[in-house]
Every structure is written in structure tokens, then in C-alpha cells.
Amino acid sequence: MHAEILAIGDEITSGRLLDTNSQWLSQRLEELGVRVLFHTTVGDELEPCAAAFRQAIGRADLVVVTGGLGPTADDLTRESLAIAASRPLELVPEALEHIERLFARRNRPMPEQNRLQAFFPKGSRVIPNPHGTAPGIDLDVPRLDTTACRVLALPGVPAEMREMWDGYVATALANTLGPRR
Predict the structure, then answer these.
(1) pTM for this model (two decimals)
(2) Distances (CA, A) of 116 to 4, 121, 134, 156
(3) SS3 of 62, please?
(4) Is residue 82 within 8 Å of residue 88, measured between CB atoms?
(5) How far, in Å, are 41, 67, 73, 84, 110 from residue 44 at the CA level?
């Protein structure tokens, strides 16, 4: 299995932030026996993000994404993935309930814009985010060659990304890959 890591965010393409997430994810994938062939970084613009997704889906068996899952206008991961996969976005009630519970626990009203984080490309599985409002996305995208590319989108906040990796992604991938030889 070959993978690509896609880092999304103007803070990375501008050089304001060092992309340590891609390094960390490459190390975790190697531990699972997955070879990372590409690291791609793209800014916060819809069409370039969708194009980066299309390219990654076309050349890798697994795409792991960080960034762009927040509630602001420049958080375009879910929308650009939906475009690249030709899937509509749909509200996932369980994801919305989780976000609402987080705000309630913090005794804060939930801004309406946070509802966006509960929309997923049709057919996605939700990757739980125990401590943040940005659930991850787990989506199989069919390709013309009859194989599918698995896309795993995680938040760019390192602590949340790592917790979601340990709590869901590593096990899900290990189950898919089977025992290491």
C-alpha cells in the first residue's frame, strides 16, 4: 500500500507554521508498513484543494489529510473532498450532537457556523474527536481501475490529530492491512 499525506492551510504554504504533522504521520504510517510516496501542501482555496485531492486519490491507495476541518470560511477540506469524490455533503446528526455536547459541557453557546463541521461527503464514516469540535472523515473513493482510495481527514491541531490517530485511525488501518510480515 502506498500513501500520500496532504497538508491543507495557508499557514503552512506561507511558512508561518512548520508542518510537523506530515512528519509525524509518515512515521506512524511506516510503523504500519505503509510506504509514503508523496507529501503535498496546498493553501486554503477551494479549487486548488479539490485538485490536490483528485491528484492524490489518483496516485495513492491511502490519503491522510490534516487541516481545514474547522468552522471558518477558509476551512475547505470537507467541501473540496466532496467535489473531488463527486459526493454531496450531508449532515450527520451524531456528529452535530457531539459538537453541541462539547459546547454545552463548556457552558458556551454553539455558534451557528460550527454546524458546518457536522457535514460529510455522502458515504463517509466519522472519525471521533473526543476533545475538539472537528470530527474527522473516513471515506473510500472508487477509482476507474476498480480499486478505491481511502481518504482519512484529520484536524490540523496536532494534539487532536494524534489522539484521533491513536483512538481510531491506527486500529482501523491495522485491521485493513492485516498482520505485518
Answers:
(1) 0.94
(2) 26, 12, 9, 17
(3) strand
(4) yes
(5) 10, 10, 9, 15, 24
